[in-house]
C-alpha cells in the first residue's frame, strides 16, 4: 500500500512555461541534448547544477569535473562519477514536457521496434506502444501498474509523471517506501517489511513515517530557500549598487577627461598666446632696430653722395675748365671740400643685430613643470576593510577618539586624502552628535575623529564611508582626567599644528603690538566683558591696510604675483585677505564687540566676497580665502548673490550655508550702491552661543550654537576680511573695550533660553 504525500509548490515559486522547463531542466548544459535514462542520465553536482552521464565522463580530468553553468570545480568522489546522484526529477520533467509540449511522436521505451508510444506506465516510468501495453497487462509483476493513455497524460497533473520508488531489498520489490530511519547508520527511506525485519526501535533505530520526515525536511529546505532568497535580494541590491557605481564611474571618467582636456586646451592656448607674444615682440624689436639702422644708413649715404658729388665737380672743373674759371670757383670748392672733410659722422652702427630667443633649459624646465601639472584623485577605500582604533577621552576636552585607516578590497592601505568620511557618536543618554573628521593622511596616513564628550560613560561611534555605515560600531569612554591613562596631549597638539598653514604665524598680544597699535584694556558692562583687542597689523594680509591704531581696515591694490609668497615669508596672512584680532577669546563668560562696515559697489560679481566677520581656531585661518568651510570656524559674510542679484548677508559653518538674507530686500545692488552697516557680536562661552545683532535696525540677525570654546579647548580668534577694492570698496571698523558703553537689548534678550 502506497502512502500518498500532498505536494505543493515551494513558497515563492511560480509555474514555469514548458519552454522554460525544457531549457533549464531537461537539457544538459554541456552538450545541449535532452536527458534520458541511458547515457544521458542527469546527475547532480554539489553546486546543484546537473550534467548528463556522458558529459561527466568526457569532461572529468584527474578526478575533477568543472560545472559548465557556474564554473565551480568539484572533486569526483573516489573517481567514480556514479557517486553523483541521479536526478530522476529531471527525467520526469523530460517526460512531462514531451507530453505537455505536444511532441508529435514519442517512441516506445520498452521494445526495440521504436513504435509510437500510446501509453505510459507510472511505476516503470516508461512510454509503451500498444503491443507492450498488452504485454504489460498480461505480466504478473506489472499488470497491477498504473497505466495512462497519452490523451489522459496531456491533461494530467505533474504528480502523474513522478516515478514511484520501491524498496530495492531483495524480496521487497513491490513494497513502496513508507518509513524513514533517522539513525546515523541508516539515514534512508525503508519499506514496511524493512521496518519490521531490520529497523526495530529496540535495536537503536529511529523510525518515522516518510511523510512526516518529508514534511520536516521540506520545511527546513523552504526555510533555507527563504534565507537564500533574502540573500539573493541582498546580492541583487549589491549588483545594482555595483552597476550604478560602474555607470557613475563612467560618468565621472567622462567628466574628468573633459576637465583634463579643458585644462590642457587652455594651457595650449596659453602657450600659443605666449608664442604669438614672443614673435610679435621679436618683430617689434627687429623693426625698431632696423629703423634706427636705416635712418643712420640714410644719413651715411647722403654724406657719401655729397662727398662724391663734390669730388666729381672739383675734378671736372679742374680737368675741363679754363684756368680763370677754375680760379673763380676756388673759394667755393675749397670751402665745400673742407666742410665735407671735417664733417663728423658715426663710424659705428647705431644698433646691432642681436636678437634671439633665450631658451636656456626651457624644455627641461617646461617638462619638469608639466610632469607635476595637475593630478588625478581617486580612492578604492573598501568599507569592510576599514580599521578603526579607539581612544578614551577626557570629559569636556576635544581629543582624538578614533583613528581611521582605510584599505582597499585587497588589503592595501589607501593613504590619499579627501575621502568622504563621517563619524556619528551616541552618548550614554542616546543623544547623537557628529565628531569632526580631520584628514591626516599627509601625516600618518590616517583620518582622526575629534570629539568633545560632555557626558561620562561609554560612547558608541558609527563610521560612514561615502555615506554608507560600517557594519560594526566602535566604543570608547569619556572619563575624568585621572581615569584616562597614558593620554598623550602633546601628540594631539602636534596633530593640530600639522594642520596649520605650514608656516610660522606670529600673533600679537597687548604687550607685543606694533607701534601704531595702542593696547586696549577689557571693559565690564554688568556681566558682559568688552574685550580690549585691535586688528593685528603684524599678521594682517598684505592686501589690507590697518589704520587708526588698529581699529580700521580697508583693502588696497597690490600689483605683482609674489605677494602671497612674501606674506608667508614674513609670517603674514597669505590667502585670507584680512586681519586677526590681537588676542583670542578662550575663558568662560560673556564677550561683546561691534563692527561697522561701509561699502560701495563698483561692479557686483556673483558670489563676490564683500566682507567677513568670524570666530575661528588658529589652525583654520589662512587655509582658504574664507573661514566659512572649516568645522572650527563660524562666520557672518556679505556676498554678491547670483540668485537675487543683490548683496546678501549669509551665515556659514563647516561649509554649510545656515542663513541667507538680502541686505536690500526691495531693490537690486547696482554699481554705485553705497551701504552702511553696524553689527554687534555677543559670545556666550558657557552656553557656546554666538549672537549676531543688527545694532542700527535693532534686530536679531542670527544665533550660532554649539561653538567649541572653553578653557580646555583651543581659543577662538576674531577674524575680519574685506573684498578687493576693484570690485567693492569696503572699510571695516571695530569697536572694542572701553569704547563700548552699552550692550543692545536685542543681544541681551537673545541670551534667554
From TrEMBL:
First and last residues of every Filamin repeat: 381-470
Organism: Dreissena polymorpha (Zebra mussel)
Residue ranges constituting the B30.2/SPRY domain according to the UniProt record: 512-741
Name of this chain's protein: Uncharacterized protein
InterPro entries found in the cross-reference section: B30.2/SPRY (IPR001870), B30.2/SPRY_sf (IPR043136), Bbox_C (IPR003649), ConA-like_dom_sf (IPR013320), Filamin/ABP280_repeat-like (IPR017868), Ig-like_fold (IPR013783), Ig_E-set (IPR014756), TRIM45/56/19-like (IPR047153)
Residue ranges annotated for the B box-type domain, each copy included: 103-150
Domain RING-type: 28-71
PROSITE patterns named among the record's database cross-references: B302_SPRY, FILAMIN_REPEAT, ZF_BBOX, ZF_RING_1, ZF_RING_2
Alphabetized GO MF terms: zinc ion binding
Swiss-Prot/TrEMBL keywords: Metal-binding, Repeat, Zinc, Zinc-finger
Amino acid at each position: 500500500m502506497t502512502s500518498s504525500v500532498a505536494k505543493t509548490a515551494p513558497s515563492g515559486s511560480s509555474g514555469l512555461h514548458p519552454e522554460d522547463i525544457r531549457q533549464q531542466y531537461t537539457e544538459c548544459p554541456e552538450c545541449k541534448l535532452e536527458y534520458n535514462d541511458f547515457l544521458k542520465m542527469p546527475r547532480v553536482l554539489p553546486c546543484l547544477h546537473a550534467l548528463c552521464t556522458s558529459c561527466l565522463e568526457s569532461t572529468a580530468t584527474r578526478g575533477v569535473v568543472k560545472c559548465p553553468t557556474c564554473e565551480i570545480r568539484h572533486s569526483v568522489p573516489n573517481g567514480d562519477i556514479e557517486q553523483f546522484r541521479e536526478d530522476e526529477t529531471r527525467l520526469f520533467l523530460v517526460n512531462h514536457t514531451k507530453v505537455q509540449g505536444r511532441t508529435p511522436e514519442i517512441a516506445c521505451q520498452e521494445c526495440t521496434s521504436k513504435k509510437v508510444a500510446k501509453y505510459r506506465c507510472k511505476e516503470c516510468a516508461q512510454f509503451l506502444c500498444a503491443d507492450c501495453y498488452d504485454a504489460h497487462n498480461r505480466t504478473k509483476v506489472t499488470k497491477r501498474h498504473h497505466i495512462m493513455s497519452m490523451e489522459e497524460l496531456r491533461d494530467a497533473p505533474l504528480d502523474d509523471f513522478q516515478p514511484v520508488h520501491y524498496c530495492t531489498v531483495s524480496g521487497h520489490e513491490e513494497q513502496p517506501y513508507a518509513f524513514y530511519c533517522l539513525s546515523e547508520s541508516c539515514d534512508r527511506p525503508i519499506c514496511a517489511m524493512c521496518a519490521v525485519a531490520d529497523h526495530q526501535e529496540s535495536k537503536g533505530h529511529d523510525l518515522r513515517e516518510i511523510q512526516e520526515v518529508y514534511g520536516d525536511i521540506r520545511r527546513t529546505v523552504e526555510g533555507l530557500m527563504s534565507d537564500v532568497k533574502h540573500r539573493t535580494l541582498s546580492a541583487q541590491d549589491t549588483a545594482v549598487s555595483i552597476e550604478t557605481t560602474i555607470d557613475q564611474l563612467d560618468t565621472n571618467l567622462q567628466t574628468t577627461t573633459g576637465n583634463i582636456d579643458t585644462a590642457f586646451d587652455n594651457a595650449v592656448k596659453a602657450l600659443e598666446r605666449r608664442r604669438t607674444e614672443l614673435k610679435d615682440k621679436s618683430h617689434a624689436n627687429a623693426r625698431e632696430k632696423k629703423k634706427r639702422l636705416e635712418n643712420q644708413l640714410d644719413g651715411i649715404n647722403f654724406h657719401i653722395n655729397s662727398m662724391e658729388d663734390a669730388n666729381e665737380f672739383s675734378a671736372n672743373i679742374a680737368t675741363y675748365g679754363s684756368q680763370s674759371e677754375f680760379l673763380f670757383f676756388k673759394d667755393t670748392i675749397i670751402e665745400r671740400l673742407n666742410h665735407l672733410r671735417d664733417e663728423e659722422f658715426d663710424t659705428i652702427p647705431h644698433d646691432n643685430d642681436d636678437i634671439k630667443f633665450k631658451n636656456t633649459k626651457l624644455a627641461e624646465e617646461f617638462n619638469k613643470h608639466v610632469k607635476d601639472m595637475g593630478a588625478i584623485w581617486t580612492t578604492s577605500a573598501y568599507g569592510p576593510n576599514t580599521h578603526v582604533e579607539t581612544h578614551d577621552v577626557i570629559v569636556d576636552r576635544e581629543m582624538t577618539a578614533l583613528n581611521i585607516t582605510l584599505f582597499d578590497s585587497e588589503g592595501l592601505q589607501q593613504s590619499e586624502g579627501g575621502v568622504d568620511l563621517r563619524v556619528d557618536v551616541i552618548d550614554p543618554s542616546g543623544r547623537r552628535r557628529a565628531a569632526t573628521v580631520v584628514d591626516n593622511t599627509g601625516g600618518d596616513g590616517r583620518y582622526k575623529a575629534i570629539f568633545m564628550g560632555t557626558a561620562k560613560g561609554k560612547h558608541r561611534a558609527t563610521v560612514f564611508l561615502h555615506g554608507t555605515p560600517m557594519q560594526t560600531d566602535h566604543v570608547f569612554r569619556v572619563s575624568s582626567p585621572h581615569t584616562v591613562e597614558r593620554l598623550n596631549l602633546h601628540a594631539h597638539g602636534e596633530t593640530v599644528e600639522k594642520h596649520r598653514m605650514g608656516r610660522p604665524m606670529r600673533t600679537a598680544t597687548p604687550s607685543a603690538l606694533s607701534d601704531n597699535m595702542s593696547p586696549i584694556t577689557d571693559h565690564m558692562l554688568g556681566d558682559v566683558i568688552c574685550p580690549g583687542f585691535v586688528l593685528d597689523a603684524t599678521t594682517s594680509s598684505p592686501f589690507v591696510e590697518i589704520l587708526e591704531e588698529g581699529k580700521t581696515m580697508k583693502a588696497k591694490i597690490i600689483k605683482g604675483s609674489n605677494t602671497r609668497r612674501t606674506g608667508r615669508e614674513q609670517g603674514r596672512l597669505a590667502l585670507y585677505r584680512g586681519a586677526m584680532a590681537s588676542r583670542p577669546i578662550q575663558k568662560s563668560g560673556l564677550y561683546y564687540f561691534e563692527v561697522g562696515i561701509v561699502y560701495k559697489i563698483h561692479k557686483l560679481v556673483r558670489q563676490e566676497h564683500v566682507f567677513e566677520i568670524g570666530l575661528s581656531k588658529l589652525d583654520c585661518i589662512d587655509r582658504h580665502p574664507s573661514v566659512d568651510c572649516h568645522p572650527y570656524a563660524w562666520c557672518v559674510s556679505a556676498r554678491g548673490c547670483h540668485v537675487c542679484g543683490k548683496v546678501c548677508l549669509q551665515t556659514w559653518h563647516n561649509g554649510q550655508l545656515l542663513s541667507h538674507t538680502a541686505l536690500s530686500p526691495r531693490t537690486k545692488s547696482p554699481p554705485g550702491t553705497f551701504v552702511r552697516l553696524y553689527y554687534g557680536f555677543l559670545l556666550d562661552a558657557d552656553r557656546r552661543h554666538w549672537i549676531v545683532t543688527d545694532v542700527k535696525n535693532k534686530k536679531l540677525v542670527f544665533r550660532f550654537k554649539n561653538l567649541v570654546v572653553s578653557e580646555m579647548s583651543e581659543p577662538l580668534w576674531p577674524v575680519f576680511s574685506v573684498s578687493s577694492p576693484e570690485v567693492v570698496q569696503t572699510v571695516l571698523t571695530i569697536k572694542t573695550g572701553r569704547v563700548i558703553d552699552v550692550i543692545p537689548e536685542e543681544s541681551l534678550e537673545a541670551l534667554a533660553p
